[in-house]
Amino acid sequence: MTPGEPLIRWDWVASHATEIATRVGEHVELAAIAVFVGFVIAFLVSLLVLRFGRLEQAATFLTGTLYTIPSLALFALLVPYTGLTILTAEIGLVGYTLLILMRNIVGGVRGVPAEVTEAARGMGLTRAQILWRVELPLALPVIVAGLRIATITTIGLVTVTALIGQGGLGYLILLGIQLFFSTPLIVGAALSVALAVAADGALVLAQRKLTPWTKGARALPHAGLPPGT
Amino acid sequence: MPQRGATVVFENVSKRYEGGAVALDDLSFEVPAGAICALVGPSGGGKTTALKCVNRLVDPTSGRILVDGRDVMSVEPVSLRRGIGYVIQQVGLFPHWTVEQNVATVPALVGWPEARIRDRVRELLDLVGLDPVRYRDRYPAQLSGGERQRVGVARALAAEPPLMVMDEPFGAVDPIVRERLQDEFLRIHDRLGMTVLFVTHDIDEAIKMGAWVAVIQGGHLVQYASPADLLDRPANDFVARFVGADRGLKRLALIAVGDMELRKVPTVREGEPLAGSGRPADGDPYVLLLDAQGRPDGWVNVERVPGGTFTKGMADPSSPLFARTTRARDALSGLLVRGVRTGVVVDDEDRYLGVVALDDLISLLGRARA
Amino acid sequence: MTFLTSVAGWFADARHWQGTDGIPTRIAEHLELTALSVVVAAVIALPIGLYLGHTGRAAFLAINIANLGRALPSLAILAFALPVSFALGLGLGFWPTFMAMVPLAVPPILTNSFVAVRAVDRDTVEAARGMGMRELQVLRSVETPLGAPIILGGLRTATVNVIATATLGALVAGGGLGRYIVDGLALQEYERLFAGAVLVALLAIGTELGFGVLQRASRHTATVGREP
Description:
By secondary structure, chain A is mainly alpha-helical. Chain A has helices at about 10-15, 15-50, 55-70, 70-80, 85-110, 115-125, 125-160, 170-180, 180-210.
């Protein structure tokens, strides 16, 4: 960052390759745990909200508040109680995912067309069967959309956890800030963006695999009955 | 695929909602096994509510509904529904399942073995006019409206239910498709013999499809009768208006020309001389020319070729031919449109049976009570 | 309970309310930075978003730019802004933070303005055109007022994001309430840390609620155009 210095010193990158790889690993680990735990909690809360509509307001208020509080502040509120540990980081990260995941799970299930659930009910599926065999599968696209947003956001937030002693790519960014050295800073930032894009892409592919019927919108030519049947 | 029908009895069924709204008021009627019963009436009049009481999507506040003698309230709703075929207007096919998986829904729920299910799906797709090989693995999004309705019917029939309950089943398709679906459904019903209760706002559909019609207005059963009785003797002004001012014409739709008393006219075969005196008794010079198989070619004027024989080229074909299954109403239309007074009725092999005159058809109209 | 009492004690201490590190000063710094960034971002993003929404162009970009913005971690943007700031001779503190926050605030404002205009009932817009309004008038008098709740939603998201990033600004020698958190961590003074976090949280929640009120107030009922 001193004028005259190149933005990236590739020799530094080469010599620190293992460290960079470790940081990427830490970053992925922190993010994966957060999204996974967040999804489990959000899923359970969503099931409750779908069953007992009155809970929705409270649930939205709580998850919404968690989401609004800036990440650094949220970690800071936890530190005096849970220390500069991975637990603090995970509590904060998980808290962030809850709102978007809950909104999308509940919204996705509610978005299933009414006639589909009516037909299912009239045909004799139990409530549990309707939820698991009809509503959740059909809600998958919306749920995965929520997962994508949650994952991308979490990957971004993991960088902040470096401030409370966790590793990840944020460590490199902080290093660059503290040493006035642009290379680790740019490498850390660029890799976290790349990681987010890769995760997003992977989720999109997974969704396509899991929902083969969504391709059907491009209909086959009606080789069957003539038009008007 | 022999199947039996269940009897359905409504006994003083009432449905009152909290706040006082009365959806059904003391409904009582019986549907015999294997019959098709149409529930008609104005929107919001309670017909859909009545239908939904049968498979317990709605529970009545008083009264009973007996299916094959058993009170539906004594059966657990889920198992009750698995034994009743349910079809709704928008079909509600499961978008994430193939046609096969959709049709197999209830059999799979009640635990049929896979092989039996697969055979059943094939059988049903054939029955509803969809080639199993081509349609089995398609998703609903790849089907047209008419195709979806057919799959919906197949799905409802999958577990061989003795009773089907349908809510405006053909309402969401255009009139041409609807007519075809109605005809095909009647054909399926002929084969399977299940009892059918269906809701429709279309009085023509009710008359065409139903052996029994229940007119429900404001939660009350206003009239329960056969279509002919409904048209001939509407119970009150409301029914008369609901049935439509063209009651007489609707009545004609129920009669086939083959069932009418047809007039006979003098006929002559191609290449043969006229029988008898060579001239029709009443002085009318026109005679119907038939070919060797007895199929009509058209009218010939005996005065033009006295004592001779006739060939097809001499015949005037202006009278339309009506299959004996043609509805009297369609025959009337046919004659009026062509501006002729006589139509020739033929059998399934197109052979002459008799003629029907405009006057005969018009007199049928008059028989419906005003 | 003892930790919270000591935090209360920190708040009670009069010294913490005076001077350059005092609570009022820090709040003011935070608000100034936030307001400035949001306004600049809005000046850039609103016209573009509204224009694209009105014409329907570049829909893919307009809709997805918010997603793109989400993928960029704020710490990373802040980090990128540092060398730029130095290259421009603007140093640490205010400028890198400001330069990081504007790009973070633009996406939600742009996407939401686009969506807001697109969501206005086409019939209403047609009616306006049919009455002889010019395109700009339609945008100004019909689409923007009817789209106001969603536009405000975008501003709300942007502002809350900026408040969050401004907190991080303390890492690059910026001011604002983030100072308490960063210093608290560095000096292991957990009362200061916690107090700063509480203040930031309250600021963010307050902003959310405030915008919520504004959004509700801006919602028009079904009767369009009560007065000219």
